[in-house]
Amino acid sequence: MNAGTPASSRYARWTVIYDGQCRVCGRIAETLRHWDAGRSLEIIPSQTPGLHARFPWISPQQCAESLQLVSPSGETLQGAAAMGRILDLLPRGWLLSWLFRAPLLRPLLERLYRWFARSRHRLGCGDHCPLE
What is the crossing angle of helices 106-119 and 94-101, to 10°? Predict the structure, then answer.
């Protein structure tokens, strides 16, 4: 968990930052948009102009390595922790989000997330994704 400078008060929603050049990440982002019936999430690619000015505490490398979730107050989660919190924010997401809070499962899910992020180019992303 990273704490950054509080985001501007004009950003009242949670912000999901994903790799917009990754097809797998793009499909996940589209799924999140579909599931976010209440529009509680702002879902933007890491290549968005002005992103670093808005979130200077998040490096491009962090965006390349994992999904980032920024709360309206600027608290930043990444990887599996971000996924768990995103599920909490979605209608019926609680059906899966409890897995991310289970003490025995949390480290396993983080390792699984890191494997997925490193392997996404083999899962349909493309050549730009290798992080290994």
Answer: 100
CB 70 within 8 A of CB 17: yes
Where is 26: in which H helix or E strand?
A: helix 23-35
Model confidence, pTM: 0.77
Give the chain's length.
132
Residues of the chain with pLDDT under 70: 1-11, 121, 123-132
**Measuring CA to CA, which residue among 92, 90, 88 is closest to residue 100?**
88
As a whole number of angstroms, the distance between CA 108 and CA 80 comes to 9
Q: Is 69 exposed, middle or buried (0-12, 13-18, 19+ CB in 10 A)?
A: buried
Q: How far is 67 from 19, CA to CA, in rounded Å?
A: 8
User: Looking at residue 129, what is its pLDDT?
Assistant: 52
DSSP annotation string for 27-92: HHHHHHHHH-TT--EEEEETT-TTHHHH-TTS-HHHHHHS-EEE-TT-EEEEHHHHHHHHHHHSTT
